[in-house]
Amino acid sequence: MLGGDHSTSLGAIRAHKEHYGDFGVLHIDAHADLRPAYEGFKYSHASVMYNVLKENLASSLTLVGLRDYCHQEADLIASDNRINAFTDRGISKALFAGQTWNQVCRGMVNTLPDHVYLSVDMDGFDPSLCPNTGTPVPGGLSMA
């Protein structure tokens, strides 16, 4: 499935689980999308990964490019061993410390099982690469 905001992903992930069984989610996004509800709506774009975990649809969730999340989401990331978070800041620190991009990416991939559902939100990238995203956040993955 290509297109739409993340509120549409839950159905696709449910179908993926039904058809393929066990898998992990690689979620490239500036946001964790781990809120139990957003503006009173529990199936919003900001809640999709919370619902994936709540419904036990994926064995793991790897967040990449994360840089805009609330305390409640940070607490869930810290307490749920299915979640692996690679924040924008953490990626930058690893690169500054001398890791290569290949090493950083291998660290991400090593958190995933053999079967992976890929979820990409354009705001996971630097806003200069996709200036028309609805929720731009400074920083993000880039080609530099």
Brief rundown of the structure:
By secondary structure, the protein is an alpha/beta fold. Helices cover 32% and strands 15% of the residues. It is built from 5 helices and 4 strands.
Structure report:
There is one protein chain. With 144 residues, this protein is an alpha/beta fold. The protein has one domain: Arginase, Chain A. The protein is 32% helix and 15% strand. A four-stranded parallel beta sheet has the order 3-2-1-4. It starts with 8 loop residues before the first helix and ends in a 24-residue tail after the last strand.
Considering the chains and any ligands shown, give keywords for the structure.
about 140 residues, alpha/beta, Arginase, Chain A, 4-stranded parallel sheet, 4 strands, about 30% helix, about 15% strand, globular
Run of helices and strands: HEHEHEHHE
Give the proportion of residues in helices: 25-40%
What do the pLDDT scores average to?
Answer: 95
Overall tally of structural domains: 1
SS class: alpha/beta
Let me know the number of strands.
4
CATH homology-level superfamily: Ureohydrolase domain
How many distinct helices?
5
In CATH, the topology is named Arginase, Chain A
Into which percentage range does the β-strand content fall? 15-25%
> Biggest β-sheet: count, sense, barrel?
4 strands, parallel
Order of the strands making up the biggest sheet: 3-2-1-4
Radius of gyration: 15 Å
> What characteristic shape results from the CA principal axes?
globular
* CATH class category label: Alpha Beta
**Low-pLDDT residue intervals, each spanning 5 or more residues:** none
Distance between the termini: 28 Å
Do you know the CATH architecture?
3-Layer(aba) Sandwich
